[in-house]
Amino acid sequence: MTRERPKALKAEAIALRLADCPGWALAEGKLRRDLKFPDFSAAFGFMARVAMIAETLDHHPEWSNVYNRVSIELTTHDAGGVSALDFEFAARLNRLLDAS
What we know:
By secondary structure, the protein is α+β, with helices and mostly antiparallel strands. It is 42% helix and 21% strand. The longest helix has 18 residues.
């Protein structure tokens, strides 16, 4: 089964979806969220759980980790911008944070 190629969302659609995606912002054409954890182990453990989301969606974030901080950027390179897939990823990540 071949997955349909995602399409980049227009600015208006991104703005509407951001209203339902707490903690995320549009920065330099990507969805971005910066997180702070109690320590490195908590930040790294979170990243391991997010890696499972990435594999499930076959969609991988641009991210970095410095001690207790994790920065995540989402964009769909195949679509040339932010797509519904990025918002699905962001929503799953938010649910993971809510469950923590």
